[in-house]
């Protein structure tokens, strides 16, 4: 019955999260349907998905109608252009759940529009909470929007939290694969190429998050994400390296019990759960085969070889404007590294430098955050083009 289908708006439909989400919907076409798809510039791929899923609306935020072939989309599909159109499109009452698969701070405004419209959010875009965690979580409380994590660690924690009362939680333990350089020496890491850094041992993801995993900035961003999503003090969050990516994270309760969620690394499971919660349905994600011998290893993270991780704890503790500045600096640094214009160890160095130079404000507005985002990107670009890597200018906008 089409009336009882779960109706989904999917932002970032052409990316890694987007295509996994479409696989979930394809496997459950009797109970799920797509109302909205968005992409930035990959219009051919979006058109293929539109032909299969027949959403009411598609939005392309990074190209214009004149860039797209005439009749590329089925005639029943409304084709819109630009971010403002996307912000309106997520609000339509028919959409129940919005899956946020846009990469980077570019995902913030779409997520916020969906939160303001009181939607269920399947939150993959962790940068939304890194940049504006306080504003977004407050807004969700006001509108009744439920933020269901899609990020695998946070989905695991969300599931494990169901085993006890919030006031009885003593610690959240985020697992990290350790990335491709987990066992590399600092000297070898300093020589890492783009191809080395893109070679993630356990997850197949988009390029930005894959580089973040290699620096462990991904875990830093996830510490900040957890701080806002679960309303917990940064000092109650711990990171442990777990190379198999089977234990997706854990919650320790005051009595010493540790509850974990386990499954083979596959994003379809947390995406599906965000759509079906509080129900569980059979899916296409592989199941853990415990009939075979396998081991689960855990080791402490090495903050000297992976200095980005410390930034996550510092920023999660500070709140305010620290997250937007760290995130913007990191987005520029990752982009420059992918263009071979920055070395791997310069990524966290750049981030720390821009963060240290900004004028901290504890309670910024959305406009102030967006202004600081622009400032931090400019300063990060300036840093990458200066041979001496001098300190950023002290012209950070005051909030
Ligand atoms: N991949 C994964 O397994 C996981 C991802 N996440 C998070 O999910 C988010 C998406 O990651 P991932 O799927 O890997 O990323 P991808 O790079 O694979 O996909 C990014 C998507 O965002 C769109 N996009 C890119 N830039 C913009 C922009 N400026 N405005 C609007 N849309 C844009 C792209 O469209 P186009 O194709 O047209 O460029 C594409 O659809 C990230 O925040 C990541 O941290 C979290 C956990 C796991
Ligand atoms: C799948 C997912 O959630 C990613 O964020 C993943 O966790 C990245 O792996 P790392 O643990 O190497 O950062
Ligand atoms: Mn993750």
From TrEMBL:
Say what the protein does. Catalyzes the NADPH-dependent rearrangement and reduction of 1-deoxy-D-xylulose-5-phosphate (DXP) to 2-C-methyl-D-erythritol 4-phosphate (MEP).
Q: Which cofactor does it need?
A: Mg(2+); Mn(2+)
Pathway(s) annotated for this protein in UniProt: Isoprenoid biosynthesis; isopentenyl diphosphate biosynthesis via DXP pathway; isopentenyl diphosphate from 1-deoxy-D-xylulose 5-phosphate: step 1/6
- Origin species, per record, is Thalassoglobus polymorphus
Question: Which InterPro entries does the annotation name?
Answer: DXP_reductoisomerase, DXP_reductoisomerase_C, DXP_reductoisomerase_N, DXPR_C, DXPR_C_sf, NAD(P)-bd_dom_sf
* Protein name per the record: 1-deoxy-D-xylulose 5-phosphate reductoisomerase
Q: Which keywords label this protein?
A: Isomerase, Isoprene biosynthesis, Magnesium, Manganese, Metal-binding, NADP, Oxidoreductase
Q: PANTHER family, alphabetically?
A: 1-DEOXY-D-XYLULOSE 5-PHOSPHATE REDUCTOISOMERASE, 1-DEOXY-D-XYLULOSE 5-PHOSPHATE REDUCTOISOMERASE, CHLOROPLASTIC
């Amino acid at each position: 019955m089409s009336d009882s289908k779960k109706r989904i708006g999917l932002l970032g439909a052409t990316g890694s999260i987007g295509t996994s989400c479409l696989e979930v919907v394809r496997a459950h076409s009797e109970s799920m349907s797509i109302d909205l798809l968005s992409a930035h510039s990959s219009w051919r791929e979006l058109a293929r998905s539109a032909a299969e899923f027949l959403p009411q609306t598609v939005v392309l935020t990074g190209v214009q109608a004149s860039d797209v072939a005439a009749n590329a989309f089925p005639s029943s599909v409304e084709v819109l252009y630009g971010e403002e159109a996307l912000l309106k499109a997520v609000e339509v009452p028919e959409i129940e759940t919005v899956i946020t698969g846009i990469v980077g701070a570019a995902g913030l405004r779409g997520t916020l529009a969906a939160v303001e419209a009181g939607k269920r959010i399947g939150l993959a875009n962790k940068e939304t909470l890194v940049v504006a965690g306080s504003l977004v979580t407050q807004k969700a409380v006001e509108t009744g929007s439920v933020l269901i994590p899609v990020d695998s660690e946070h989905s695991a924690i969300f599931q494990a939290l169901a085993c006890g009362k919030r006031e009885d939680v003593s610690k959240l333990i985020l697992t990290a694969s350790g990335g491709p350089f987990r066992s590399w020496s600092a000297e070898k890491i300093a020589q890492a190429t783009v191809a080395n850094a893109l070679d993630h041992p356990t997850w197949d993801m988009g390029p930005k998050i894959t580089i973040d995993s290699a620096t462990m900035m991904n875990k830093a961003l996830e510490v900040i994400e957890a701080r806002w999503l679960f309303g917990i003090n940064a000092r109650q969050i711990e990171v442990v390296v777990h190379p198999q990516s089977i234990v997706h994270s854990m919650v320790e309760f005051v009595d010493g019990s540790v509850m974990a969620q386990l499954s083979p690394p596959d994003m379809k499971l947390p995406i599906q759960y965000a759509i079906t919660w509080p129900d569980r349905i059979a899916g296409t994600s592989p199941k853990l085969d415990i009939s075979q011998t396998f081991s689960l290893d855990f080791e402490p993270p090495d903050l000297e070889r992976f200095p980005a991780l410390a930034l996550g704890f510092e920023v999660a503790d500070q709140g305010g404007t620290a997250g937007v500045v760290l995130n913007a600096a990191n987005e520029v640094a990752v982009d420059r590294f992918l263009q071979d214009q920055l070395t791997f160890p310069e990524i966290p160095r750049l981030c720390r430098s821009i963060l240290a130079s900004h004028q901290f404000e504890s309670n910024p507005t959305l406009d102030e955050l967006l202004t600081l985002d622009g400032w931090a990107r400019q300063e990060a670009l300036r840093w990458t083009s200066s041979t001496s890597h001098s300190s950023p200018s002290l012209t950070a906008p005051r909030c």
